[in-house]
Amino acid sequence: MTEIDKDLASIQKARDLCKQAREAARSFQFASQEEVDRICEAMVEAAVTEAARLGQLAHEETGFGFPLHKKLKNEFASRNVWEYIKDTPTCGVLHHDKERKIVEIGAPVGVIVALTPSTNPTSTAIFKSLISVKARNAVIVAPHPSASRSTAEAVRVVREAGERAGMPAGLISCLENPTLQGTTELMNHYATSMILATGGPGMVKAAHSQGKPALGVGPGNVPAYVDRSAHVVKAARMIVESKSFDCSTICATEQAVIADRPIAERLKAEMQANGAHWLTKEESDKLAAVMFRPNGMMVAGLVGRTPQYIAEQVGIQVPETARVLVADLEGIGPDHPLSREKLTTVLGFMVVDGWRDGCDRAIEMLNFGGDGHSIVIHSRDEEAVLAFGIEKPAFRILVNTWGCLGGVGYTTGLAPSLTLAPGGIGGAAVGDNISLRHVLNVKRLAYHLRDAPEVAKLWGGRESGPAPAQAASNDPGQDAIDRIVAQVLAEMRGTR
């Protein structure tokens, strides 16, 4: 019996999915707003109903985090995201600027390749599927190989719900047996139009190098500065709760606390009261030696794990009550491995003298693997808060809130998202929380507004010769524009 080559099979499957997605996108491109919203609402209802089961599957497959926290992320990716985008029009006429004589019309991007990570597999798949379909795009989910089963199941749940509500077959699909070659084929295929990349640095870089639009994330080496003016009790509780949420598998989670000296000891005591366990210098060194490879990459087996699991692997003792392991930092950079991004329940801690010194240390952390991503500040000094907003190379400055759930838009007013872009300084095209507007194209009807200058009318720039006859105006007038817009709207509603 001939053994099937997994890479070749994955490549062929990728090609088949791309062709099916393109046909489905073509059949869906003129769907009405009512049809689109009905399909999306069915997807959301199904995802919320299955949120707990999908969270359990993700935990069982990857070993990361906690099922209950993953359930919350699934609900957030469906219900919260939908509440944010549901009233946004994506079909037909979106806006009519009568003064500028511009009519904006929604248009899909086409076929979107959605790369999903092992840390948030089901929630990211739900999120990207929902925003894609709302904009009338097809979407092909490419899972991380270590989370392929749970991701495929999440895709199946929203796909079947959408198809029962009238969505064309093939509009949502999943590369269920992914390989690097198969995923690369998805990104390279002529039928795909855009890549939404959430994952490790290697895959995100590959997505940005495909010669087509790509929106990706960057690493989130997030500093959390606690100012002397902060509400220390609240800050300590939020930091520990945020860092321990789903075992720190959200990239906006705090990676090191930078404490202003006057409140440092009190902050430490309050963090300990909330479940932070301080490591000795010897324990911190042992942890750093086990947690990171020589190239600075974190060992995958410690991602998204509890303090107790980490301690067992390292050979140290920690109490069962520990929610977070904290290591004192003597500096930031390659010589201090625990100042790197740690997608697990390990937090750095350092003391500074004043918010300006805190500013400098925060910038060091961002430059050391977190450019453009996020920063947290706990302060009641608006001068310090504003300085952090102006001076830091980060696009999310989270004030007096959780890092992880604040960054994704749960505890803040940011766009609810599971793909946080770090802007140009972080290697991405934008610095936003990726949402509906990033996967929606807009066409514009632009009517004649003002006459061209006389010099533009002269052939070759010559002023000699007879003056050209005055052409009749082609301006249809405002009444005609209004009639056209009304006609388009009526046709989209199916009333004509």
Question: Any idea of the CATH class of the largest domain?
Answer: Alpha Beta
Oligomer: single chain
What fold name stands as the CATH topology of the largest domain? Aldehyde Dehydrogenase, Chain A, domain 1
Question: How many domains make up the coordinates?
Answer: 2
CATH architecture of the largest domain: 3-Layer(aba) Sandwich
Strand content: 15-25%
Which term fits the overall shape? globular
Radius of gyration: 26 Å
How are the strands of the biggest sheet laid out side by side? 10-11-12-9-8-13-14
Low-pLDDT parts are: none
As a percent range, the share of helical residues equals 40-55%
- What is the residue-mean pLDDT, rounded to a whole number? 93
CATH homologous superfamily assignment of the largest domain? Aldehyde Dehydrogenase, Chain A, domain 1
Structural class: alpha/beta
- Cα(first) to Cα(last) distance is 60 Å
Largest sheet: 7 strands, parallel
**What is the helix tally?**
17
State the total count of DSSP E strands.
15
Could you provide a short overview of the structure?
The chain has 496 residues and is of the alpha/beta class. The chain is 43% helix and 16% strand. The strands form three sheets. The protein has a seven-stranded parallel β-sheet with strand order 10-11-12-9-8-13-14, sandwiched between helices.
